Amino acid sequence: MMNLFKKLFNKSNSLDIKNNEIISPLAGKIVNLETVSDPLFAQQIMGKTIAIKTNKINDIVNAPITGKIKALYPTGHAFGIESDSGLEVLVHIGIDTVNAKGKGFKILEHNQGERVKAGTPMVKVDFGKLSKTYDMLVFVVITKNIASKVEFKSLTEVENNQIISI
Fold it and tell me: What is the pTM of this model?
């Protein structure tokens, strides 16, 4: 029954995006990376990065690209997806949230190796609870970009599933 619901739910979230386009995994304000306390993200050490701050207490973080789940941390704080063309995107939810040990995160019926479409709900996050201890920025990081040059648009706010790459 869950698989049937998941298939129906994923179909309704099918987006018409081009290969290597990245969408925002949630709605919020874009945060200047120079203000981020974690140098790994602030200095874009892992790759091109954009940071998003939601104003919601509870929210769903969606897949930013279509592809195969390459990493899905059991704590729910991060996941990575690789497109068919080789573009790899990591979504990291919060700073130091691995220390939450999964509390405040719920992975939504996904497994490593599974294919997902851009816009597929991936993780439910209790931003209200976690923000009492952690900086709850959501980072989208291009970790591998072999297929083409993908850059992030210069934006101040984003809507859920809005294209954020050029």
Answer: 0.89
